[in-house]
Write a structure and sequence with these properties.
Helices cover about 70% and strands about 0% of the residues. By secondary structure, the chain is mostly helical. It has a domain of about 140 residues: Alpha Horseshoe (Serine Threonine Protein Phosphatase 5, Tetratricopeptide repeat), CATH 1.25.40.10. Helix 5 runs antiparallel to helix 6, helix 7 packs antiparallel against helix 8 and helix 9 runs antiparallel to helix 10.
Length: about 230
């Protein structure tokens, strides 16, 4: 014969269980509430931290745009934000801005270190392409030609969909041109001109390509509309 509890309606069954296991139920409910409060606090704190980080970054950026203020120490100000608000979107942007500030000041090795730091700490960021271009540009600016070429090529081949690829190809073409590799340079200039026709570097790529063709006529593609020779009529 089945027990009396088994014959009760569902809500009565639950109440019968609760009466028999009141202490465990109370503890379980309290645990759920505590966990919920912890999750809520973490989410709230993260949101507050993101807001604070964004405000701090905006303040530093605004001060740099003030023509009456000195840019001295701007990189350090950005790095302070990155340290105080790690793993935040504002902290990530602060690292890139610090790297850019170092680069503008001619501190290429410091800039490279920050671009590389960004890639380590934010590998899935949508600004990965900018950081990779930054590393390559720093190597280029330091005269490390072979390493710069490798970095530009890595960006263009492994990350072909990044928005900065045309800039990387233009810089790579310039390095090939300086190494007296006009054919490689011409091909890249042509790719840049087609990929970014309305940009300054796209227009510049077209000019550089024309200059190369004037200097090396053999690089011009064979015309498909060449006049027919008289002996072939």
């Amino acid at each position: 014969m089945q027990s009396n509890v088994a014959q009760l309606p569902l809500h009565d069954k639950f109440w019968a269980w609760f009466e028999g296991n009141k202490k465990q139920a109370v503890y379980g409910t309290a645990a759920v509430v505590v966990v919920g409060l912890i999750v809520w606090f973490v989410v709230w704190q993260r949101s507050e931290s993101q807001i604070a980080a964004g405000d701090a970054l905006s303040n530093v950026t605004a001060s740099q745009m003030d023509p009456t203020s000195s840019r001295s120490g701007s990189a350090d100000a950005y790095l302070k934000i990155a340290t105080e608000y790690p793993k935040s979107s504002a902290g990530a942007r602060a690292i890139l801005l610090a790297a850019g500030s170092f680069f503008t000041d001619g501190k290429y090795s410091e800039a490279q270190a920050q671009f590389e730091r960004f890639l380590r700490e934010y590998p899935a960021s949508p600004f990965t392409g900018e950081a990779l271009l930054g590393v390559a540009s720093c190597l280029d600016a330091q005269g490390k030609v072979d390493q710069a070429i490798a970095a530009y090529k890595d960006l263009t081949t492994r990350h072909p969909n990044e928005a900065v690829v045309p800039q990387a190809k233009f810089a790579l073409a310039s390095l090939y041109e300086s190494q007296n590799k006009p054919e490689l340079a011409r091909n890249l200039y042509e790719e840049v001109e087609h990929a970014a026709p309305l940009t300054s570097f796209g227009n510049e790529a077209g000019v550089r390509m024309e200059e190369l063709l004037a200097k090396f006529p053999n690089l011009a593609p064979a015309s498909t509309n060449a006049p027919m020779r008289s002996d072939m009529k």
